[in-house]
Amino acid sequence: MRTLLQFPLGKADKLTMNKETPYASNRRKFPRKAFRKTLSFISKGDSEVVDGVEIGEGGISFRSNRKMVAEQKLIVNFFLPEGDFFSVRTTLKNVQNSSQMFTYGVSFDDVPLALKRQIRAYVARTFMTN
User: Fold this and answer.
1) ∠ CA 87-110-22 to the nearest 5 degrees?
2) Which one is predicted more confidently, 122 or 10?
3) Whole domain around residue 117: which residue ranges?
4) How many domains does the chain have?
5) Cα angle vertex 62, ends 104, 101, to 5°?
6) CATH no. for residue 78?
7) pTM, to two decimals
């Protein structure tokens, strides 16, 4: 019969393993890269053309002066540089307000494989050139 040895965790180990740390809450599942391109979104029947901020396999962020609430559903339309046009269903996950402009972070719902591949390639290309 095997006996597992258990060692007490020190303070530093507890902090790095705790999911409530500020670092853990800001980690992302996928890397993001600046996306300073125009995109559009549709929300509750209204559309708006806005400036993108960042993009990654999991989602995209953009700036708008329209007030929206978390968990709101949107359709986001954009072109990837050297890629295709995409129209993707998204869910609003993050809202940041600064001087009457909002920066919204949305997560992609049911991302097509072609989009994942093109975003991954875009992020890899821009990481290598920066």
Assistant:
1) 105
2) 122
3) 32-129
4) 1
5) 70
6) 2.40.10.220
7) 0.74
